[in-house]
Amino acid sequence: MPDQMTDPALLTAPARTRRRRWPWLAGALAIGLGVLGGAAWWHGDAAPPLAPAAAEAPPSLTVTLAPVQRRVLAREVIGDGSVVAWQELVIGAETGGLRVLSVPVEEGEPVRQGQLLVALDDALPAAQMAQSRAALAEAEAALSIARLDLRRASELSRTGNVAREILDQRQSAVQQAEARLLAAQARQGEAEVRMAQTRILAPFDGVVARRSVLPGAVVQPGQEMARLIRDNRLELDARVPELDLAALRPGQAVRVLHGDREIAASIRAVAPVVAGETRLGIVHVALPAGSGLRPGMFARAEIRPETAPALVVPQEAVVFRAGQAVAFVLPEGGDRVMRREVATGARQEGLVAVTSGLAEGERVVASGAGFLSDGDRVRVTAPR
Fold first, then answer.
1. How many domains does the chain have?
2. Are strands 61-67 and 363-367 parallel, antiparallel or unpaired?
């Protein structure tokens, strides 16, 4: 008979029995816990576990504020161009075929009105003048004789000693003599003009910008003799963008820069036409006497138009969201910002003009606005 202690069937039987009991016990335990939990929920004896108290959210960003102020904010208008003469007079010859005798002026020399610029050979005009004077004297003598004959004929006609035909002839002779005298006077005037044309004089005060002839040259009608800068007045023809022209007026102050030199000037006129190719307009800036500039020099003009006060904020207070300029306002006593859509204008020295969206005295976020959204909590710190 086999030993019961060593029978494999008997040894493995309890182990299989134990393995069949564990699933049953686990299921019973789960059912029991479910019943207990349901009872506790039904009677309200057990409360759900308490979540830890949510800590208050910290401010999203530390920012600085700036007030919305009203002040004059003029946008500086920049233009550049060449220095030119206010009026450059081209002095030409009115006669031709005459030789230049002398040019008693030099380039850059100031001249007075009526001063001699160029002297032409006057031998031929002088001879023509002498001839015209002789012809004039002859015409005057002929008229005198004709008038005397007419007077005698008139006296004889009263007594009937002279025929009517003779009297008519004397009257006609006087008229012809008077006409010849007028012609002689005209020729005399022409000769005087020709004589005057041999002396080319300065029509105004100014400075000789160019001397175009030298002694010995034979001039032709209309040939340039010299150029004058009238009254020695210079100006800067500054080219300015078309959008800036509307703010410019004659008399506004201008700062002209040429190298290290700074010159106080003013606007004389604004050209009424804008170049279609460049969209630039010309602003004529009158330069003061003794500016040291010369025609042809290149200079820069800085103009600050006079404008009315406007609401301004720091430039960093205005940020863009989806292409729209916005600013963040912090109400007095509050800690959450409000987003405002704004319209901006001129900019100068770190400030920007706000034409709509803000009111004077409101506080806007100056630094840190780029990281904010509407309703964010902020902590305010003093600007450094």
1. 4
2. antiparallel
Domain identity same for 321 and 335: yes
The answer to whether residue 193 is domain-embedded is: yes
* β-bridge pairing 261-274 and 253-258: antiparallel
Per residue in 63-114, pLDDT (tens digit) is 999 999 998 876 789 999 999 999 999 999 999 999 999 999 999 999 999 9
> 246 lies in which domain range?
77-86+232-303
Return the CA Rg of the chain: 54
Asked, for residue 91, whether it belongs to a domain, the answer is no
**CATH number of the CATH domain containing 281:** 2.40.30.170
pLDDT tens-digit map of 141-184: 999 999 998 888 887 777 777 677 887 888 899 999 999 999 99
Of 171, 190, 187, 184, the closest CA to residue 141 belongs to: 184
For the chain, the first-to-last Cα distance in angstroms comes to 104
Low-confidence residues in the chain, pLDDT < 50: 1-48, 50-54
User: How far is it, in rounded angstroms, from Cα 356 to Cα 203?
Assistant: 58
Examine the domain organization and report whether 194 and 130 are in the same domain.
Answer: yes
